Amino acid sequence: MKTDVLIVGSGCSGLYCALQLPEDKKITIITKSDVESSDSYLAQGGICMLKNDADYDSYFEDTMKAGHYENDRESVDIMIRSSQDVIHDLLGYGVDFARDENGALAFTREGAHSDKRILFHEDITGEAITSKLYEAVKKLPNVTIFEHTTMVDIVEEDNICYGAVIRREDGTLETVEANETVWACGGIGGLYRHSTNFRHLTGDALALALHHKVRLKNINYVQIHPTTFFLRDEQERSFLISESVRGEGAKLYDKNMNRFVNELLPRDLLTEAIYEQMEKDHTEHVWEDLRTIPEEELRTHFPNIVEHCRQMGYDVTKECIPVVPAQHYFMGGVWVDYMSKTSMDRLYAVGETACNGVHGRNRLASNSLLESLVFAKRAAKQMSGELMQKAKQKKQIWLISDRTTRGDDNGEVMFRYLCANPDPTVEPYFVVNKDTQDYVEMKKLGKVVEPFSWKHKLLFLLNEFSLSSQANKPVINPFGKLEYLYRDIIYDKKLVFLQHGVTKDNQSKWLNKYNRNLFGFIVSTKPEYDSAFTYDYFYPEKNIWLTGMPRYDRLVHDERKYVTVMPTWRKSLSSGTDARGVWQLGKEFQESEYFHFYDDLLNSERLLGAAEKYG
Question: 267, 416, 487, 570: which one is catalytic?
Answer without folding.
Answer: 267
